[in-house]
């Protein structure tokens, strides 16, 4: 996919400072990668406005990069919240939305919230550490063993236990009484996909 | 989005950035310059803001590596190395073994890190 160029200018249509441009472009690419279901044009628009605001307040910015990521994440959150509040599913829309993974209803938010609560309760800091190692740092069980100061066999067992705990959380979220609604198929699909 | 990533992004808000490492440290972690048992990794697992920045660092590192190395025609997309793939092995006896094997295969296809130095 071709990378979308951002048009980053300040209020006077001058090019913004390189540090802010790099920060905003990084945050924009992160948002596109992390939220692929959001139209990248919307994200680009948000990024360009963010760059303009950052440039006009650059004296007050501590770290442009840190600010850009936090602001971009906030904009995505706001957009997801507003979208859920402003759109009404009519007719086949739910199925269509689900097909393109755009469904973001209140019910989905509740289900996600239940799941996250369960994950928070069931997963210890150590478990989350293992998750980060495996999913983001591409760690091998040997790496996990090194990181935790345990032997290889114990590391594989620890990884297995994390997976089992996640599976339990997904089951609890799927069976939650709050999740029983016409949209339950989302949860069921999620569970199947994950287990 | 991968649900586990969403979990880390949403479940541990730290708007005041208490105890957060600086950007350079997060970038060093993403680049594999820090040992895997560095406490920063532990912090990333408990701070949504740092997790967001850290995943951004990984993207930047990957973009840089892909720009440098053009010999691999089938570039693995960011996000393919997610927990869904590993978790899909749950449900049968050999799940853990096959998931770990898949994990290793994906790792070798995805990124070549300083693992070679150890083995």
Description of the molecule:
The complex is a heterodimer of chains A (about 200) and B (about 120). By secondary structure, chain A is mostly helical. Chain A has 2 domains: about 20-85; about 95-195, no CATH class. Chain A has helices at about 20-35, 40-55, 65-85, 95-100, 105-120, 125-135, 140-150, 150-175, 185-195. In chain A, helix 2 packs across helix 3, helix 6 (about 125-135) packs antiparallel against helix 7 (about 140-150) and helix 8 (about 150-175) runs antiparallel to helix 9. Chain A is extended and about 60 Å long. The two termini of chain A are about 30 Å apart. Chain B has 2 domains: about 1-70, no CATH class; about 70-115. Helix content of chain B is about 55%, strand content about 0%. Chain B contains 7 helices and no strands. Chain B has helices at about 5-10, 25-30, 40-45, 50-70, 85, 95-110, 115-119. The chains are: A mainly alpha (about 200), B mainly alpha (about 120). At the A-B interface, helix 1, helix 3, helix 5, helix 6 and helix 7 of A face helix 1, helix 3, helix 4, helix 5 and helix 6 of B.
